[in-house]
Structure formats: C-alpha cells, structure tokens
Amino acid sequence: MLTILGITGPIFIIIGIGFAAVRMGLLARTDMRVLGVFVINVSLPALLFKALSQRSLGELVSAELLIAYTLGSLLVAGLALGHVCLVQKRDLQSGAVLALGVSASNSAYIGYPIALQVFGPAASAALAVYALVESLVVMPLALTLAEAGGSGGRRWYNVLGDILLRLAKNPFILAIAAGVAWASIGVPLPAPLARVVDMLSTASAPVALFCIGGTLAGLHLKGLGADIGLIVVGKLLLHPLAVFVVTLALPGMSPQLKTIAIMNACMPMMSIYPILGQKYGKEGICAAALIAATALSFFTISGFLWLSGAG
Predict the structure, then answer these.
(1) Which domains does the chain have, with CATH numbers?
(2) 3-class secondary-structure state, position 106
C-alpha cells in the first residue's frame, strides 16, 4: 500500500501545482495547449525511442503478451464504442474518445514503476510491448475513428488519405520505428545524443501532469458525470477483465505474463489522454476522468495485487 501511495502521491502533487498555477493566474488555461503540444511532439516520443532503442530485438516483443494485451484492449474499446454509438445513439467522435480512455493505460508513469518493484527486469520488456500496442494499435485506431467522425460529410477515401498521412508523420510512430531500427543496429547511442534523449524524456511525465492540473482549473463538470463514470469503470474494471478473458484462451501463457498483462490493464488511462482529447473539444471530460481514475486506481491496483498474490 505504501509503495503504491509513494508512486501515485507525487502524481497528484504535480497535478495540484498545475491547477494552482492557473487558478493563481501564473499561467492561462489556454497555455496548457502549448505544453500539451510539447509533450506529444517532443518529450513523449523521446521516451518511447529511449525505451525501445536501449533493448535488443529479442527483448522488445513477447508474442503472447502482445496478443493478450492487444486483443483485451481492442475488446474493451469495442464495447465502449458500441455502447456510446449504438446504445446511447451518440456520434462516432464521442465514442472514439471514450473508447481511447478505457483502453489505453498509463503504462510508463504508473504501470512500469509498480511492475518494476513487483516483477523486476520483466517489467522493462513488458513496457516495450505496451508502447507498441498503445502507440501502433489503440491510439491510431481510436484517433482514426475520431477523425472520421468529425469529417463533416467528406468522402471516406479523402478522410482515409488524410489519416494515413497524419499517421505517417505521427511522432509516436516515428519514434517507435526509429527505436526499433536503432535496436536492430545493436550499438549504444552516442553520449551527447543519449543525454539529449534522457533530458527530453524526463520532462514528459511532469509536464504532462502539470498540463492536466492546469486544464482542470475552472473546469465545469455539470452534465459530465455519466461519461466520467463510464470511462472510469471501463478503464479500471472492464479493461483488466477483458485482458483476463483473453488470457484464458491462451493456455500456454505463463502465470507471470498473465499477471503482468492484467495488472497493466488495471492502471488508469495514460496521462496525455486530456491532451489527445483537446483536438475534439473534450479535454475537460478527459482530464476529469483521468483524475477520478487515478485516484480510484490506488484501490483497484492494491486489490488486484492482493488477489493475485503478486504484491
């Protein structure tokens, strides 16, 4: 319990600092968009490149973990999308943003530190798998659907062409491709370049969390309770349940890998979720859902560790 509190505590403190900075007038709420652009286009890609480039190709992917986590994440995303679009009769863009919230975990900033303390070196290889799933499957798919939902009646092949062009320029995808390519070379980064990557990647977590706090300042939650509840329940309960169901269909998967996969699904959504929702005018609900999920995840993560005997 104290270990998890020691990890989540600083997260809330940084969010609180961002909130206070905007409420006190040191920064404007609109300034958070600029910080968000920095995280998405510069800092987080540096973190992904670092995570992948410093491992051998044999360490990058566990096929069973990749299959289990990918299918589990797609399953819960599909359920959320279907509920919003078919049951609630809402637009595709809203469904895609909510689906992203229930299926993309905070693997780097919460999942990895906890997994490292529980599973040791196996956590590093798992982080690479999560980065691939979330950056090459979950995020591109959800954002593609969000783009299609806001296409304004344009022909589908024009929308698809624009999406493919954006994906080809996506900093996450470029960083992963560069990281895998460098890992295949098998040589360490030159010291100056390695230092630059370290500095940029180190900035990603605090800047993203500060941005979330600033976005929350002045946020009006009236009428958002149902969506927040849907996202939080989907992320903290349905996502791990979906991954668990998939692992049952993989009898050859080791118990440790199953626990690693399910535990990461127990994490709250990625800290850049509100930043990704900015483009669609949903940064407020995304930030509120992130705060609620991060707070409640202390209990769900602790409960899973206790039930699995991993803690």
Answers:
(1) 2-308 (1.20.1530.20)
(2) coil
For the entire predicted model, the pTM comes to 0.78
Q: Which residue has the tokens 């096929």?
A: 63
**Spatial distance between the Cα atoms of 163 and 201, rounded to a whole number of angstroms:** 27
Residue 26, Cβ neighbours under 10 Å: how many? 10
- The number of beta carbons lying within 10 Å of the beta carbon of residue 307 is 9
pLDDT (tens place) for every residue of the chain, 311 residues total: 566 666 667 877 888 899 899 999 999 888 888 888 888 888 888 887 887 787 666 666 678 899 999 999 999 999 999 999 999 999 888 999 999 999 999 887 778 778 877 887 777 778 778 878 887 789 878 888 887 776 555 565 666 677 677 777 778 778 888 888 888 887 888 899 999 999 998 888 788 888 878 877 766 656 567 788 999 999 999 999 999 999 999 988 889 899 999 999 999 998 788 888 887 888 888 888 988 888 888 888 888 888 877 65
Q: DSSP letter string over 226-264?
A: HHHHHHHHIIIIIHHHHHHHHHHT-TTS-HHHHHHHHHH
